[in-house]
C-alpha cells in the first residue's frame, strides 16, 4: 500500500510536524509521527522576517535552512516508521508561511522551505505550494484543511464541526446532509496573540497549560474592544494570519486601557479566542465539536470553550480516530495524494475560488 508523508509548520512557528500515513477509504492510518521544534535562532529569524525585518538575502537563506529542516523531519519520520524510503509515494510539504495577504489589489501568499531541497535530500517526490493556485482562481488560498475534514470526518447522522486551534483558529462545519455545503474559515487568533504577549512579557514562547493566564482575570472592556476588530464580523470566505493578529495588534489594544496587569491581558487574550470562535459558530445546540491543534493541549482554553458552549459537545479529533496534533500534517499528506492523482484539493465554497482546482507543484524524486 502506498504511504505518504505530510509536513506542516503553522503560524505558531513552534516547529515542523511530520507524519507518515496511509489512506484507506475514509480512514487514515498513521505509521509514524515526529516533530522537530525550530531552533530558537531560526524561530527568531522567521519572526523577524514576518515583521519585515529581513533582506532578500536573509529570506533566501531562510528558504534553504527551513527546507533542510523539513527534509530532516521527513528523513526522521521515515526512520521511526522502519519503512524503506521506496515505500513512500510522495511528501506533501506546506512550508512556512511568511506572509498571507488574500485581499487587496494583488493578493499573495508566501511559504518558504525549498521543496527542491526536500526532494533532493530524501529522493522522494515532493508536492508543495498548495495555496497559490486557489488564490489565482480568486480564492483565499486558505483554509485548505476543510476538504480533508470533509473527506475523512463527515457523518450521515450528525452535523460535525472541526475546530483547529493553531496560531490561528479555523472551523469546518460539515452538515450531516451531504447535499448541504461545507462551511470553513479562519475565525481569528487561537494561540497567536497569547504566544506573542507571553513571549514579550515573560520571554517564554507560550503559556504552558495556560498557567500564567489562570493567574489573571478577564478585563471585559478590553475584551469588547478587541472583539470590535472588523475581522470578526466579516462574512466568509475569509482567512487571516500574523500579519493582522500580532504583538502590535495587542499593544495597540492595550494602549487604550492603561494599567491592566500583564496576566489579566493574557487571560483576556485567551477569552478573545473563546469568544471569537463561539460567536462565529453556526447553531451550536447539539453540535459535536472536535478540536485539534496545539490549543487543544491548553486545559484552561478547553475549559473556557466548554463553559461558553453549554449546548454543544466538545471533544477531540481522537474520537474520530486521528490524533489532534496530526490532523494538519495528515491533511497535507492527503493533499499531495490528491495532486498526484489529479484530484482537486480545495473546496470552492470555503475558499471562494471560482472552482475546484488541483493544488500544488510537483518536485519529482
Ligand atoms: N501545553 C500547552 N499549553 C498551552 N498551549 C500549548 C500547549 N501545547 C501547545 N500549545 C500551543 O499550541 C501552539 C502550537 O500549535 P500548532 O497546532 O502547532 O499551531 P500552528 O499550526 O500554528 O503551528 C503553541 O504555539 C502553543 O501556543
Ligand atoms: Mg505548529
TrEMBL record:
Transmembrane segments: none annotated. Pathway: Amino-sugar metabolism; 1,6-anhydro-N-acetylmuramate degradation; Cell wall biogenesis; peptidoglycan recycling. Its EC number is 2.7.1.170. It catalyses: 1,6-anhydro-N-acetyl-beta-muramate + ATP + H2O = N-acetyl-D-muramate 6-phosphate + ADP + H(+). Signal peptide: none annotated. One of its GO terms (biological process) is 1,6-anhydro-N-acetyl-beta-muramic acid catabolic process. The keyword Transferase applies. One of its GO terms (molecular function) is phosphotransferase activity, alcohol group as acceptor. InterPro entries: Anhydro_N_Ac-Mur_kinase, ATPase_NBD. NCBIfam families: PRK09585.1-3 (NF007139), PRK09585.3-2 (NF007148). Catalyzes the specific phosphorylation of 1,6-anhydro-N-acetylmuramic acid (anhMurNAc) with the simultaneous cleavage of the 1,6-anhydro ring, generating MurNAc-6-P. Is required for the utilization of anhMurNAc either imported from the medium or derived from its own cell wall murein, and thus plays a role in cell wall recycling. PANTHER family: ANHYDRO-N-ACETYLMURAMIC ACID KINASE. Belongs to the anhydro-N-acetylmuramic acid kinase family. This is Anhydro-N-acetylmuramic acid kinase. The gene is anmK.
Amino acid at each position: 500500500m502506498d504511504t505518504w508523508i505530510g509536513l506542516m509548520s503553522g503560524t505558531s512557528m513552534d516547529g515542523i510536524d511530520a507524519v507518515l500515513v496511509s489512506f484507506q477509504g475514509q480512514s487514515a492510518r498513521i505509521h509514524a509521527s515526529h516533530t522537530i521544534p525550530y531552533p530558537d535562532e531560526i524561530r527568531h529569524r522567521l519572526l523577524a522576517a514576518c515583521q519585515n525585518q529581513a533582506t532578500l538575502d536573509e529570506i533566501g537563506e531562510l528558504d534553504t535552512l527551513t527546507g533542510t529542516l523539513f527534509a530532516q523531519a521527513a528523513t526522521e519520520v521515515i526512520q521511526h516508521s522502519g519503512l524503506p524510503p521506496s515505500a513512500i509515494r510522495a511528501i506533501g510539504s506546506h512550508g512556512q508561511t511568511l506572509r498571507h495577504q488574500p485581499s487587496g489589489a494583488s493578493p499573495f501568499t508566501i511559504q518558504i522551505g525549498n521543496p527542491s531541497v526536500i526532494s533532493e535530500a530524501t529522493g522522494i517526490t515532493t508536492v508543495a505550494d498548495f495555496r497559490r493556485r486557489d488564490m489565482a482562481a480568486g480564492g483565499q488560498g486558505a483554509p485548505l484543511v476543510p476538504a480533508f475534514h470533509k473527506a475523512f470526518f463527515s457523518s450521515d447522522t450528525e452535523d460535525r464541526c472541526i475546530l483547529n486551534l493553531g496560531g490561528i483558529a479555523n472551523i469546518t462545519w460539515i452538515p450531516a446532509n451531504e447535499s448541504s455545503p461545507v462551511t470553513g474559515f479562519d475565525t481569528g487568533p487561537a494561540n497567536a496573540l497569547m504566544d506573542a504577549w507571553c513571549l514579550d512579557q515573560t520571554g517564554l514562547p507560550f503559556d504552558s497549560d495556560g498557567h500564567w493566564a489562570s493567574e489573571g482575570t478577564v478585563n471585559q472592556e478590553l475584551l469588547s474592544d478587541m472583539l470590535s476588530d472588523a475581522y470578526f464580523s466579516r462574512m466568509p470566505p475569509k482567512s487571516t494570519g500574523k500579519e493582522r493578529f500580532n504583538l502590535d495588534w495587542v499593544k495597540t489594544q492595550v494602549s487604550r486601557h492603561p494599567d491592566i496587569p500583564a496576566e489579566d491581558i493574557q487571560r483576556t487574550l485567551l477569552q478573545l479566542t473563546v469568544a471569537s470562535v463561539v460567536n462565529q459558530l453556526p447553531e451550536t445546540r447539539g453540535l459535536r465539536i472536535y478540536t485539534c491543534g496545539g490549543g487543544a493541549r491548553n486545559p484552561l482554553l478547553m475549559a473556557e470553550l466548554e463553559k461558553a458552549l453549554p449546548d454543544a459537545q466538545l471533544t477531540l479529533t481522537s474520537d474520530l480516530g486521528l490524533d489532534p496534533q496530526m490532523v494538519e500534517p495528515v491533511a497535507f499528506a492527503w493533499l499531495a495524494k490528491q495532486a498526484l492523482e489529479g484530484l482537486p484539493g480545495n473546496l470552492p465554497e470555503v475558499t471562494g475560488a471560482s472552482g475546484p482546482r488541483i493544488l500544488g507543484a510537483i518536485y519529482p524524486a
